[in-house]
Amino acid sequence: xxxxxxxxxxxxxxxxxxxxxxxxxxxxxxxxxxxxxxxxxxxxxxxxxxxxxxxxxxxxxxxxxxxxxxxxxxxxxxxxxxxxxxxxxxxxxxxxxxxxxxxxxxxxxxxxxxxxxxxxxxxxxxxxxxxxxxxxxxxxxxxxxxxxxxxxxxxxxxxxxxxxxxxxxxxxxxxxxxxxxxxxxxxx
Length: 188
Prior knowledge:
Blueprint: E1 13-15, E2 25-27, H1 39-48, E3 57-61, H2 67-74, E4 79-84, H3 87-100, E5 104-108, H4 111-116, E6 123-128, H5 137-142, E7 147-158, E8 171-178, E9 181-187
Parallel strand pairs: 3-4, 3-6, 4-5, 6-7
Antiparallel strand pairs: 1-2, 7-9, 8-9
């Protein structure tokens, strides 16, 4: 009897799950505290966004692996900005943007500092997945000048917190849970 070997999951890589770059792996440094958005959660999110990505401008805050922004670009978004402060993750984001020839702007800055100094750019989709221990109150106050009239904001939080901390940004349009993660889309 031949035993099947269990598929080994790469611990420091995520894959793009749809669009032009489907199946491409995004490696990231194992030494960083990044927590990539699981494939299942990204698949649900991008099913929700399916008809809203063509030509969209996206802002990926606390970009980490860049999985959300690169997934959006793979599915037709016009442009994505990646805001991250960790130098190792910035190098990884830059490497992936060049490899994919993506229309990506990599910003090496603390998110609150970046948001406090608006650059007169508006975004259609904002990905907000900060460290779980971080309070979102300051971010919620700084975000509105960064998105247009009909923007969508994706938020990922611990399931114990849910969407309550960001509900004043707009209407919670979609919401779900996966394990210890609560995530949703807010329509402004």
